[in-house]
Each structure stands twice: as C-alpha cells, then as structure tokens.
Amino acid sequence: MANINDVAKLAGVSKSSVSRVINGNFEHMSDNTKNKILRAMKELEYSPNTLAQSLKKKTTKTIGIILSDISNPFWSEVLKGVQKECMRMGYGLMVSSSGEKEQIEKENILTLRNKQVDGLIINTTGKNTDLFNSLINEKYPFVFLDRSTDISNIDTVIVNNILGAKMSTQYLIDQGHRNIGILLYPLENKSPRIDRLEGYKEALKINGIQINHDLIKICEDQNGSGVEATKEMLALPTRPTAIFSTNTILNLEVIMGVKKAGLKLPEDVSLIGYDDYPWVPLLDPPLTTVSQPAFEMGVKSTALLIKKMKQKKQIKPKIIQLEPELMIRSSCLPPLK
Amino acid sequence: MANINDVAKLAGVSKSSVSRVINGNFEHMSDNTKNKILRAMKELEYSPNTLAQSLKKKTTKTIGIILSDISNPFWSEVLKGVQKECMRMGYGLMVSSSGEKEQIEKENILTLRNKQVDGLIINTTGKNTDLFNSLINEKYPFVFLDRSTDISNIDTVIVNNILGAKMSTQYLIDQGHRNIGILLYPLENKSPRIDRLEGYKEALKINGIQINHDLIKICEDQNGSGVEATKEMLALPTRPTAIFSTNTILNLEVIMGVKKAGLKLPEDVSLIGYDDYPWVPLLDPPLTTVSQPAFEMGVKSTALLIKKMKQKKQIKPKIIQLEPELMIRSSCLPPLK
DNA sequence: TTGAAAGCGCTAACAC
DNA sequence: GTGTTAGCGCTTTCAA
C-alpha cells in the first residue's frame, strides 16, 4: 500500500501538497501541481490511511453502539436504522453487545472509547452510573437508547412505554377482561420494564380494577421461563382471561405456554404482545401487539448523537420520545362468561 | 484524557518504561519503577490510545463485516455469532451493509480497508471480482461468507445449498407431489440462489419428473413480489400442489399469497420454506423449513478469518461447508387426488 | 503557490 | 533496568 510519501515522490512535490489535495484544499494550487498529484495518486492506487488522519485530526468519523442484547430481533431492526444513518452521514459503525452484563457494558464502553470512536449509542443495562457520570465530565458525547437511567440531562431516544402498556391493558379491559395477567423480565434498573408495569397498573387503577399480584409474573431472563410462568398463571384459581406479554421472546413463550396448558388462543385466553414484525400477522393466531418504531429509533438516535458531536458548546440535552402503536389483530376476544 | 507523556512525567520515568508496562514487558523492570508507573496510570485514569498503538503496530485488532442485506433476520443471527467470536478473541467489529449493490459493497470494502481493519468477512453481491483479485494480490485477508464467487482459492464459509434444496424437494416428492413450484430471488451471480435452483432440479431429475419452467418463479428483490408470484403460480392450469420458497421473506409472502388466492395451507398446497427461527413453529401452519446454522456461520467465519490473519505465510485456503437440516413440521401434506 | 518541520500518541531498536 | 531516539502516516502552521 502506497503512502503519502510515495505519492509525493512520484509527483515530484512535497507531502504537504499531497495532503492538500487529499483534503480538497486546492484554492491556491496550480493546476499543474494538482494534476501531477492526482495522476500519481491514481497510478499508485493511493488512498489515505484513516488511522493516521484520525490520530492527527482527533476524530475518527466512527461511532460505537453498545446493545444490551443482540439476540432480540428488535435490536436487529434498530441496528438497521443506525447503520443506515451512519452510512448516510459518512460515519463508520462499531457494534458490541453487553449481554445485559454491567461489567461487559463497561469494558465495551472503555474499549470503544480507547479506539477513539467519536461518540456512543448506549442501550444501557441501567447500572454503571459512575462511568456515565465520568463520561459526562469529560464531555464525551453519548446518547441513551430505549432505556434511560437516574442520571438526568442525557440525550435520549425512548419510546413511551407507559402509554404502550396502558393502551394495551385498556384495550383488554374494553373487551370486558378483568383478570389480566402480565409477564415481564426482571425490572432491575431497566426503565422500559418498569414503565410497562406502571402503565399496566395505571390502566387497571383508572378502571377501578384491583391489582392482583399473582397476575404479575417476573420471568427469569433468557431461558424459556415464559412457558412455565404462563402455565403457572393459568393454573391459578383466579385464572386470567387475558395476558399482556412485554417482550418479543415472551410473546412466543406465552403462546407455547397457553397451548401446553391445553387452552386455546384466543377463545380461552386473549393475548397482547410487545413488538411487531412482518411475521407477527402470520402467527396462529395473528397476534395483537404494541409496535415500536425500531428502525426510526436507530435513525433518530444516530442523528441525535451526530448532532451532539458536531456542536462545540454544550446545548441542553434532548429527550426524543417516540410513540408506540397498537396493532390490532385477532388474538383478543371478550372473556367467556 | 491523559497520554503516555503525562504518565511518564508523573511517575518520573521515560515513556519507554511506561510503554513497557502497557505491553506487559516487565521481566527486567524493577518493582519500584513498575509500581510508580502503575500508580501514575491509576491516578490519571490512563488508558492507551488504541489509534496510536495501531498506527505503530500496524494492526488494529478490529475486523469488518460487509453484509449484503442487513434487513434479513438471517443475517442478524449470523452477526450475533460474529460478534460473539470477536468478543471472545478480543477483536472489535465494524459492520456495514451493501444492500446488494455492487458499488456500495466496493465503497464499504475500501473504507474499511482504509480504516485499517485487519481483515474482512464478506457476504458478497457476487460481483466486484477485480476488487477481490486485487485484495488477494495485496495479501489482504478476507473470507467469503455464505456466497462464493468465480474466484477460486478463497477461504469461505458456506452452507450446502444444493443439498438443502434437494432434501426439501425430495421430501415433497416423497409425499406424492409432482407439480412443485419454486420461488427465488434473481440468481445474478449469487451462489446460494443458483445452488438452490440446482438442487431443486436435481431432485426432480432423479425422480424422473420433467422440469416445468412455469413453476420456476424469479421474484424481484425486496418488495412483496412473492405474493403476486404465488398467486400467479396458483392460477396456472398446472397449478402446483406444493411450493418451495428459498428465502425468509419469500416464505412469508407465499403464505400471504396462498391465502389471497383463496387456498388453504397445507390442505390445498404444501409449503417448505428456507431458514428457521423461534417463531417459525408458531406460524399458521407451523412451517417446515430448511434450517441453516446461522449463528455457527458467524462464529466459524470469524474464527477462520482470525486464523488466516495470524498465519504469516500463505496456507491453502479452506472451504468450510456446513450442512442444512430439514425441520419437519406441518405445512406439507400429500396432494389432493 | 509550495515546502520544511513539528507533532498527533505510541512502540521498539539500540545504547548505556 | 532504563532512557534516547527514530518513526508509524498523516495534517498544519509558518516561512519562503
């Protein structure tokens, strides 16, 4: 691979001049010099070493994203949006995944930072508060995606999860349901989970329905736990006539759980899931779900980060809240009398 | 952010010594010096600038992947495997997507190369032969993933697509089907598509079934074209009693197409799809598909690339061929008499 | 309009 | 054991 010196030598000029054409600073350059350099570059198939440029310019034109769980198809869709916006803006993208582990999240952040990426999109585990505070201190640009933390004043792209849960719970209530179960992954510090439970409770409260804690199931993260949880819930004396599932994986496990309990969907029990995909309408039964604008989340968070990186002086952080949408299909029916 | 000079100054030593402890070359260093440096590093919260290290060491410990189409959930699964193996081996990962465009693929490759990533995993559009040849010339390490090209002697991770198509076509024939339709995206130079058509034809041939070109539908890439293609095929005088779909997106479109044609799956027409996911068994009907080891493809291609990068002298390129598996569910029935 | 020289943050050969 | 020095490939003053 040829370098700037090779080009300079071949063109018979100094490397400063070559650098000028690399960076498009021709204004005061003779056409002759310029052409000589251009020709030499072509001949050597030269293209500048981005690493060296970055070291000097102190910017890599690359951002990093840290996902909590790359397994969830929801994040693939988000990633697609991130990727697209990066491409459009001429940025590179480094991807990593924390697997919901605080420690790995921390390492990933540190590694990416050392690689000098210009900014970070973080779908945080919700912990690591100290680290985030120190990033803020250093004025290192980052945005939170989908999940916020206790730390206020961070640019964030988020979906209205209270609304999503409220809408779907209300929809079930409107159909006549009173015993509505909800399945969640452990709340920990994760705002979407907390908010979805909150929205569920709010809807019940507004409608004067007592909260039954047996109908709130916290499933273990990641291992088919939703199937068992569903069966347990359906074995309850106060068996729910409807279930609200708060995660893509859980949606599938609830469907399996209901079948295993020997019950029929939606005749015996109604179901609303979370997140929407092209295949959801083709499930048996076609699932009513809360749809989140995943792709848009990716695009918006990237745009927000890039904007933040570009502005020299601190501007007031922005919280972009997107709205979920209830996709009504045929997995809900009024309860049997 | 502190740099190596700050540490050296604070510890009262030269930066060579600091560099030594960064790189773990303590053997001949006094404990005293070492401790002074360690303390200074901690105090300044120092961590080395990877960019500068890379420029000097001529290796970035980062690889790049170029996907043809990040939209397909299949690639999310592959990416998961790539990500995991990168993590395990201490490599960073840069992700880009060509959207099946030759020109964008080329730009992506060039950009990543300029960013000095140590190697590339390429799920190629199948064109860009000249570029690949020049990479080979420069001894720049890359592996092909899922698709191969005319260029021989490239490390490649691939799935046996002929077998996948043959297995599923044979399965349909065994059920008594003779009129079997196949849906494909444009073959262009894409080996999996070519091979799947080949496998389909081979199975027919072995069983003495004449190929009917009306039953081979090439759908336009990416726009619901599969729905129309299915309807057209089902309107044929020699209407197929079974359909073989060769892509995740097409699977869904065929299901929709059959419904729109007023036909029932699997009673009126059997269907085998390609690629498997947790939600496939929950579709209506539970879909029989050819399952590809997507995650494993990601892991294996990464491992192969890293191995290739590490060996100094050229070793004979390796083709890793993985096997697909037919996941039999209930979307196929013997044809009506 | 162009070139010389310093320096981005680090490593490594060499000298002591 | 430790420091000096040159240099990775580039950009950017500054001077000519």
TrEMBL record, chains A, B:
UniProt keyword list: DNA-binding, Repressor, Transcription, Transcription regulation
SUPFAM superfamilies in alphabetical order: lambda repressor-like DNA-binding domains (SSF47413), Periplasmic binding protein-like I (SSF53822)
Residues covered by the HTH lacI-type domain: 2-57
GO molecular function: DNA-binding transcription factor activity; transcription cis-regulatory region binding
Classification via PANTHER family: HTH-TYPE TRANSCRIPTIONAL REPRESSOR PURR-RELATED (PTHR30146:SF148), LACI-RELATED TRANSCRIPTIONAL REPRESSOR (PTHR30146)
Entry protein name: LacI family DNA-binding transcriptional regulator
Organism: Anaerobacillus isosaccharinicus
